Amino acid sequence: MQSIKQQLQAVQTLQELENLKVQMSGKKGVLTLAFAQLKNLEGEEKKQKAQELNLLKQEFESIYENKKSELQTLELAKKLEKERIDVSLFTQNKAGKTHYIHLMIEKILDYFSLLNFEVCQGSLIEEDFYNFEALNIPKFHPARDMQDTFYTRDQKVLRTHTSPVQIHTMLNKKPPLRMIAPGAVFRRDYDLTHSPMFHQVEGLMVDEKGLVSFSHLKFILEDFLKSIFGDIQVRFRSSFFPFTEPSAEVDMSCVFCQGEGCRVCSHTGWLEVLGCGMVNDNVFKAVGYENVSGYAFGLGVERFAMLYYAINDLRGFFEVDLRN
Predict the structure, then answer these.
(1) Three-state secondary-structure class, residue 218
(2) What are the φ and ψ backbone dihedral angles of 253, each rounded to 5 degrees?
(3) How far is residue 302's CA from residue 309's CA, in Å, rounded to a whole number?
(4) How far apart are CA 97 and CA 95, in angstroms?
(5) Residue 119 pLDDT > 90, yes or no?
(6) Among residues 221, 289, 295, 279, which one has the least CA distance to residue 245?
(7) Crossing angle for the helix pair 2-10 and 43-82, nearest 10 degrees?
(8) pTM for this prediction
(9) Is 30 a residue whose pLDDT tops 90?
(10) Is 115 helix (H, G, I), strand (E, B) or coil?
(11) Of residues 269, 272, 293, the one with CA closest to residue 281
(12) How far is it, in rounded angstroms, from Cα 117 to Cα 181?
């Protein structure tokens, strides 16, 4: 047994340790054979010998477990050292770049932040009240046809615009306020210029009645579009949105043909880029505002990015090229 103990202390690997365990307690091991010889003894001698063997077995197992734990720790340390990564070797890797969608959002927010518009964000899943009803779009209203989209089982909706952020903000703050709401929205569209998920930026300004007018809205949107696209012409066309009255579509001269007419602008020389209007009084009633006036506007970020970066297929924003 003393020889086995010495060998246990001297082993250098887990394999050597397992070999010793087999030698000691395997089918033909020292202890196994010793226990087998007990049948040849009788009485007190058998009892005493059995006690001695059990003590030896316990002592061996204790030394074995300690040695095993020691060797496992050493082997793990060697493995970690061997697999250690020198991060300084990776200085030549290509750096990533910001997605065009996020670059465009940053450009838009930079402009409005300079005018003290607060950036506000909200949940992607909304209650029907915030997404439709508070925005003067009651159930069965025709305006829902183009926006009724993805619902959860408890009849919550994946927001179809970022306008619900405006409702939450007005319910929690008193005027005057000016805010800008960027974020992802969802509708049931999918083609060259539409996708089921896209990004919007919507703005809202509210103050005492008479202090906010359509002329303010017109000036700020013209200046905003020129800050993004440079020397362009801007026009406003009468339109309809349930949450604004009066409402307008905003067009700018085509950035590809400079208004001469091309395939991109359907040979009209104009590109529709956003919608706007004065906030409908029914929206103010839904949030408990009185004696106020305000304007709101909304734009599709992908639309702006496609024009700014000359991208001809919206779906390219969401496809992944693994080669890069």
Answers:
(1) helix
(2) -65, 145
(3) 10
(4) 7
(5) yes
(6) 279
(7) 10
(8) 0.66
(9) no
(10) coil
(11) 293
(12) 10
